[in-house]
Amino acid sequence: MSASRNPNQLIPGLLLCGGVTLAAMALQILEERVLGRPYLEALVLAILLGTLVRSVWTPHRRWLPGINFSAKFLLEVAVMLLGASISVQTILAVGPGLLLGIAGIVMVAIPASYMLGRALGLPQRIAILIACGNSICGNSAIAAVAPVIHADSDDVASSIAFTAVLGVVVVLALPALIPLLHLSGTQYGVLAGLTVYAVPQVLAATVPAGLVSTQIGTLVKLVRVLMLGPVVLFLSLGANHLERAAIHRSAVVTGQSLPRTGRLSLTRLVPWFIVGFLALGALRSADLVPHLALAPAALTANVLTIVAMAALGLGVDIRVVARAGGRVTTTVVVSLLVLVGISLGLIRVLGVA
What percent of the chain has pLDDT over 90? Predict the structure, then answer.
């Protein structure tokens, strides 16, 4: 009997993932109390702790249904709930020039980072994850894109581990560009919003530069995060096309007839959770989502993502991550430098003062 027919089979794995999640959250709270801010968020800590557990202990197959359920279905639910954070009003607030600039930077940075990763010999899925993580919102983008392109645990772990470390480095190093490039508060806020991975990290990077930098940086970052929806939708359509192409090539090589697929429906072209993501975004933009539900939805999405990251960590082969280390690090670092360069170019082109 499958786990879907017998929910009791999910319990051991769910409890294990929940335990790792609680430990990750506790460590983040400890960081905040001791260091003043979480340099490694619970999402990152969960995948690191899960990987550590998997490195010293191989779960018996009775644990696997719950782990797999957490890594796939719970992550998909979390991605869907992120749609409630979308607001057309937020997008329009930055003005047409900067809005087009943000979209343009994301559209340029993703293929540039992807091609760099492929040139360095990274597998296609890891290259896509790193490109989206660097160009949009770091670990959250990686987590959202992973189920769409069918990335496995090792791909996700490699991408998140290195972008997490670099994200901390960026927060600490970016303020040094203010005197070096003679950036105003507004200019630095735009730069931070375009380059720093997560919204809390934008706050950490901009607070030392003043209130204006913090406000501008946060707004630009929120609009950049909203690019995740169109990008995930595009990748979903592309993944479906590549899957059909692979089936066709296999049929040609083996001499077998092509399977009958019938008419393609929206749910076959686009996964259910992406449809839900877009639907929630539309409802939020129309102010049809109760304001009291926004905070619980965001909290639920965050917790489910952490649980999913714990599950992914529990499926990681650390040897695969280690082998990809040098190439992944180079791709992440160079991609970020490219992103900083084109962001500074946008600031000059738009005449941000």
Answer: 22
